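@channel sequence for tomorrow's demo:
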Amino acid sequence: MNRSQLEHIVRSASDILPGEEILIIGSQSILGTWDETRLPREVILSVEADVTTLDGGEEKTDMIDGAIGEGSRFHELFGMDAQGVSLKTAVLPQGWRDRLVKLDNAATRPGHGFCLEPHDCVLAKMVAGRQKDHDFGSALLKARLLETQTLAERIELLEISKRHKVRIRAWLRGAVPTGS
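structure tokens (generated this afternoon):
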């Protein structure tokens, strides 16, 4: 996915739910901060964006999923989709709402979107802990697009078990490029 495709998803979701603020909470939220020209290939492989509304309304999310989700006419036409997800899908560091990146331009109108700040996005993926999540975070670190100190500080803002924090700290130590 690239930024213009993400903008198309935000625009389409806003058409479905006029006046709603659209939240991208999955890996493609990274496109709110950097466009695809700055990002490692591994980071932009997905053809779906995890989408909800800023208030997390699950009925609204279901409407998005039904209209532009996987298997929809939108998906068939454009080769991408918006997977409607719950805010409960992601475990995010405290204060994440204050750090959202606004995606608002002519290509998102009539609406606008909000994307997770990259460090928050990566930590949510580390909580999930799948191999593809580790690859995602490691690629961003290798490209020097993330600050290891910021990640380390925000690990402490996650409401997860001590054991999970230890696992994420271990990933961070192993993923930091040599010379950082």
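heads up for whoever presents: The first strand starts at residue 22 and ends at 24.
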